[in-house]
Amino acid sequence: MKTLNIGMVGYGFMGRTHSNGYSQANHFFDLEYKPVLKAVCARNKDKAQAFADQWGYESVETDWKELLKRDDIDAIDICTPNNLHAEIAIAAAEAGKMVLCEKPLSMDTAEGIKMCEAIEKAGVKNTVWYNYRRVPAVTLAKQLIDEGRLGKIYHYRANFLQDWTISEDVPQGGAATWRLDADAAGSGVTGDLLAHCIDTALWLNGEISDVSAVTETFVKQRTHAETGEKKEVKIDDACAFHCHFKNGSLGLFESTRYARGHKALYTLEINGQNASIRWDLHDLHRLEYFDHGDDSIVRGWRSVHISDGDQPYMGNWWVPGLNIGYEHTFIHQVADFLKSLETGEPCEPTFRTALETQKVCDAVLSSAQERAWKNV
Ligand SMILES: NC(=O)c1ccc[n+]([C@@H]2O[C@H](COP(=O)([O-])OP(=O)(O)OC[C@H]3O[C@@H](n4cnc5c(N)ncnc54)[C@H](O)[C@@H]3O)[C@@H](O)[C@H]2O)c1
């Protein structure tokens, strides 16, 4: 079996989901390549070693630049806060490594363009971990749309709601709360949560032409975890935007970390001329489907349990009727990446594809700032 030697940078939340993906993919998918957990890189050697022991990495590095110098590493997996994506990805490409980068691709479009140029110049395989494409129910939604079952699409609606930053005591910056620090995150809910909704939307419903957005920062000052200083909060705590898609449909998106009671409620709904689709991350193995072509006396919303072998990815899992969950989306992305090494096809979304989400995020943020419609 051919091997793909992984060097992973960062061992937090995503470090765990990816490591699980690498460990599981070959158990469930027939693939020519097998990932080898060669090295994990983090600044604290003891913590990196503990992670390596727990997940089965062969070695540790404390400086990602050393990781890039190693001949025994084929692919760099970037699981760090957003402000490090570009520097690591560009250097990795220049070192001839494949790059798997967490989302959002970059801090902004300008940085994303440089990343795409570096990756394409080096000609290295790449992908961005917009994993919600690989929830089988969402993949099935794509299939139903591509088959034309919805007909002309009129509306695309998506929400991503959380409630973890309501307390003014939550700090900004540092290990667990870098997402509240604009210097580390780039933006708030727009780049963190709406980026997922936008990636899925572009995939399912095509390009967005223009946007009109509002953002709000509810807590204006927070203590910085690293300096102890009270500093202005520069991220968007909440963002809502509406938009036109190039296919003529209207889009409506909302995200916030102030929706008390919601932890990670990603929902989407698509209304077409003939049928509608609805999906909810809290019930991720179901796809709600309404088909106007059904016999009127039994017409209604169906809740399709996605567990059968002829539904996307499910033939690789257990038996019909049994669910899979969140972690499987990362296993699917690993499997698809390994498959792409066999076929020579790109593993979507590539850097170039993920740049489109970055462009929408930038247009959203500048629309909110200038209180004006913005072209993407
Ligand atoms: N695809 C998804 O659904 C999803 C979900 C969560 C996070 N993310 C993305 O993944 C990335 C990481 O987020 P997370 O939630 O795992 O964060 P996290 O805070 O849990 O982990 C970040 C890791 O980066 C490490 N790190 C920071 N600076 C470093 C450096 N200079 N060198 C080496 N390691 C360094 C930290 O030690 C930590 O291990 C972000 O870009 C985030 O947007 C994606």
TrEMBL record:
Q: Entry's InterPro entries? A: Gfo/Idh/MocA-like_OxRdtase_N, Gfo/Idh/MocA_oxidrdct_glycsds, GFO_IDH_MocA-like_dom, NAD(P)-bd_dom_sf
Q: Which intervals hold domain GFO/IDH/MocA-like oxidoreductase?
A: 140-278
Q: Where is the signal peptide?
A: none
Keyword DNA-binding recorded: no
Give start and end of each Gfo/Idh/MocA-like oxidoreductase N-terminal domain.
Answer: 4-128
Annotated keywords: Oxidoreductase
Q: Does the keyword Oxidoreductase apply?
A: yes
Task: Tell me the superkingdom of the source.
Answer: Bacteria
Q: What is this protein called?
A: Gfo/Idh/MocA family oxidoreductase
- The source organism is Roseiconus lacunae
